[in-house]
Every structure is written in structure tokens, then in C-alpha cells.
Amino acid sequence: MTIEFVDIVVDARRLTIEHEWLSPERRDQPLMVFLHEGLGSVSMWRDFPAKAVDALGWRGLVYSRPGYGRSTPRPSDEAWGPDFMHRQAQQVLPALLQALGIDAHRDPPWLLGHSDGGSIALLHAAAFPAQVAGVVAMAPHLFVEELSLASIARAREAYLHGALRQGLAKHHADVNSAFWGWNNAWLSPAFRPWDISDELGTIACPVLAIQGEDDEYGTLAQVRRIAARVKATTVLPLPECGHSPHRDQPERVISAVSSFVQPGR
């Protein structure tokens, strides 16, 4: 694993972004950008991105959002508002692509996002419809469900009193930055009405929406809502699968992604 760092500027603030290129020598092949979950990072993807791009014969880009991994941490006094995923989709990701010399106008990348990363991928595709070739959204959130909030509240208890903090500390230079940015934002009363459903109508690319049927953080209503808003949506429910399809059923997910992005292959 070769980790690199690049600086971007968002809201007049300089941020350092941890990232990794996968098979960059395939410069003439499409690019898949991977967007991690609400507690994720480059390292928490493990080997899934490499296996996915190898199956496709593509290039890949994995990065840690600000506040995560070894990217610039969230200041301890900074509370993320209900728009935190919008900011990632509409400000941070475009700035990162530009800093890395990716011309999304000329060669739109594909986006593969998990959980919050899936929501960010959808929001980016909605804001820049001509600059995204397609979206794979695994366990994305479009609106707030009580199931999600209950699981996020349990995560708080596990972080405070269980082994979650120790496990996450292996993947984040500032583990409190990663956990409390995400947890406090989701459990804030101001986040309860959050709903991006009506923003997705501008998406012009195809979408593969994958949802585990045993997901403790969301139900099939999330991906069905995508299909109701975006015509070119394929919904893939996965039995015996929880919140992380790429960890629970990696071969099934890679096969589905391959069929989706390269139909008829």
C-alpha cells in the first residue's frame, strides 16, 4: 500500500487528504473513486477496492475524508451540521479531484460509496450530473430512520464503554475526530428531518443501489427511494447481509458491480 497526501483548500482552509492510487498504470482505463462509510478510512476498506478494480481492469482512487484516517482531523470544537455530507459532495470531493489532476468534465469517474459515502456519491452525482459516469451506492442513507438512530446510539455506548474505540484507533490518527464528528452529527436533533430524496432527480448516470436485508443501519426503503427518484437505477437486495456488503459478500458485490459497469462482458 502506497499512501500519498495532497493539499486542498475548502472555505479558505487548507486540508491534507490521505489517498491511495490503485493500478495507476492503467491510465487509459476508467477510474473508480471509493467513498468510505461514516467511520471509515483508506485502511478500513482493506483489500476490497484493489480486488474490485482488478476484476474490472480499471484504475482506482481511495481517500480518507477530512476528519478521518490520516487526513486533516476535525478540530475538537467543530460540530458537523446536517449539511456535512453535502459539503463533502459539493466542496471536498471536487477540490480533491482537481488537486489530483482528474478532469471530470473530459473523463467522468465512477463512484462507489458505502453508507455515508454512498450518500455523498449520490449528492455529488446530483450536483455535477455531467461529471459522473455512474454510481454504486452500498447501504446509502437518503433519510433518517429510527433503526439507524438506534444503531448509532448503540455505537456511542460501544465507543464509550466497549472495544469500538480501540478498534477504530488502528485506522484513524485522531480517533475522537472521526467518531464524534459522525456520531454527534447523526444524533443531533437538527439532523432528524434530514432527507436528500428530492435532490436526486438531477442524477443523469446509472445507479446500482445495494442493500443488505439484515442491515442494522437502514432498510430497503432507502434504495427503493433511489429507484423512485432516479430512472436508471438497479436495486440489489442481498439476503444474509448486514451494513457492509463489501465485507459480508465481497464476491457477490464485485460480480454485481462488474455486470453493472460492463454489461454484456
TrEMBL record:
One protein family per Pfam: Abhydrolase_6
GO molecular function: hydrolase activity
InterPro entries in the cross-refs: AB_hydrolase_1, AB_hydrolase_fold, AB_hydrolase_sf
Residue intervals of the AB hydrolase-1 domain: 33-255
Keyword terms of this UniProt record: Hydrolase
Source superkingdom: Bacteria
Annotated protein name in UniProt: Alpha/beta hydrolase
